[in-house]
Design brief:
By secondary structure, this protein is α/β, with parallel strands linked by helices. About 40% of the residues lie in helices and about 20% in strands. It has 16 helices and 15 strands. Helix 12 (about 300-320) links the parallel strand 10 (about 290-295) and strand 11. Helix 1 (about 5-25) crosses helix 11 (about 270-285), helix 7 crosses helix 9 (about 225-230) and helix 9 crosses helix 10.
């Protein structure tokens, strides 16, 4: 192995960071989806006539979504709900509400109430264009009585630390809320206001009913599903008593289910696989062969990292997927938190990958959270390769110890291998690029 191998792999990986963020930007996508027509707007090929149009953006991609939409729409009202300290919309006529993430708070209730109040300013025949992206589940919340925001904070904290998948978490969230699982759309529909939901996906499989808990999408899940997930993950017994009673009442039919049918146009306009396809094009321009493995990575991040390492090594040694080039993947692995360190899913994945490929030859991995925030850190992700473990040992650090303590941020920061982008104003989940014996050729 030559020392230059690691340097060339790293150079290519870092070049892919900016391309990934460019491909993740929803502003041009929504701008191209919406067009003015003589008496209203056309949305993704479907025409709507309307006197007044309200544009509401919710989630981590809200700033870029609403900026893109307002380049095509003359809105009567424009409202964006974003995380505190997040990228803000550039458009000056947008009302901005800052809320909290990943846990809801009283600010989340305020955001929900502001959107509901906005619905009351519109009339029959008007149009609500609701732009939804990841993070919206926490940013906009209204607990179903008698539940309180404190009940929902504790519920969410337990779920987020349990290793539950995003589909499982959002199934539960929909059944304790008055705005999730299609219920936000109902406030508009009951007033005769037509609703369009455009979604940027941050969930494996791109089911809009799971993105930000699907506030405009009919919900096919049930109270029984929610209870089953909580029990299967072993956290049912730790839930606040009021939450358990509420969910049990829902299973018995005492509390109405989420809406199963709605007259709403919903469309997913940007996904993780769209980003992977864009990266494949860019790599081809650089003279590098690449393939897309999947956009649906799920499971414990460290186990996903090991699995990806086995693919990388079989490619390197046997050419089973690709002898020389880049394997692209995406999705949403999870982390079961047992330690008290700093880190997140992309860094845990990268650390486990590094451990498995240590000293095996010129393979590397870039793992990037497209929102720019991985776990409880200021990093977007990490770079790892076949030299990571030996370099860590050289400064008295251990990958195993970092994983045990959920302290992978300290590991990669010490190696100067964290990727820091700052908040990006978008969210299309995690992107992974495995680099196998390759370099930039032109």
């Amino acid at each position: 192995m030559k020392a230059s191998d690691s340097s060339e792999l790293r150079d290519l990986a870092l070049r892919l960071v900016s391309q990934t963020l460019t491909a993740s930007d929803p502003a041009p996508v929504v701008r191209n989806c919406i067009k003015w027509i003589s008496n209203g707007i056309e949305v993704c090929g479907r025409g709507f006539s309307a006197r007044n149009i309200a544009v509401i953006a919710i989630g981590k991609a809200a700033p870029r979504l609403i900026d893109g939409a307002l380049e095509s729409v003359e809105a009567t009202r424009a409202l964006a709900v974003i995380p505190r300290g997040w990228v803000r919309p550039k458009s000056s006529n947008v009302e901005v509400i800052e809320s909290t993430h990943p846990l809801p708070s009283s600010l989340s209730i305020k955001a929900a109430e502001e959107i509901i109040e906005l619905s009351r300013t519109l009339s029959k025949g008007d149009l609500a264009l609701i732009l939804i992206s990841g993070g919206g589940s926490a940013l906009v919340e209204l607990p179903k009585p008698p539940l309180t925001i404190d009940d929902l904070v504790e519920l969410n904290r337990l779920m987020l630390n349990s290793g539950m998948s995003i589909s499982e978490i959002n199934t539960v969230r929909k059944h304790v809320s008055m705005v999730k699982g299609g219920q936000l759309a109902q406030y508009f529909i009951k007033r005769g206001i037509r609703v369009i939901g455009l979604y940027v996906s941050d969930v494996p499989g791109d089911d809009p009913s799971l993105i930000a808990s699907g506030p405009t999408v009919p919900d096919k899940s049930s109270f029984s599903d929610a209870v089953g997930f909580l029990k299967a993950r072993g956290i049912w017994g730790n839930l606040p008593g009021r939450v358990k009673v509420f969910l049990e009442d829902g299973v018995r039919g005492v509390i109405p289910e989420t809406p199963k049918r709605l007259r709403v146009m919903n469309k997913v306009i940007l996904t993780n696989v769209d980003v992977l396809k864009s990266l494949r094009v860019r790599l081809s321009e650089l003279g590098i062969r690449s393939i897309i493995l999947t956009s649906r990575l799920e499971g414990e991040a460290r186990e996903v990292g090991k699995a990806l390492a086995s693919i990388a090594l079989d490619s390197l040694r046997r050419g089973l997927l690709i002898k020389r080039g880049v394997v692209l993947a995406g999705g949403e692995p999870t982390v079961t938190v047992r330690g008290n360190g700093k880190g997140g899913r992309t860094m845990e994945l990268a650390a486990a990958f590094a451990k498995s490929v240590s000293k095996e030859g010129p393979v590397a991995l870039l793992a990037l959270a497209t929102d720019g925030i991985d776990g409880n850190t200021n990093a977007a992700g990490a770079y790892a390769d076949y030299t990571t473990e030996s370099r860590a040992m050289g400064i008295s650090l251990s990958i195993d110890d970092a994983l045990i303590r959920n302290d992978t941020y300290t590991l990669f920061k010490s190696l100067n291998d964290v990727i820091i982008t700052g908040p990006t104003g978008t969210q299309v989940n995690t992107v992974v690029a495995m680099l196998i014996n390759t370099k930039i050729t032109h």
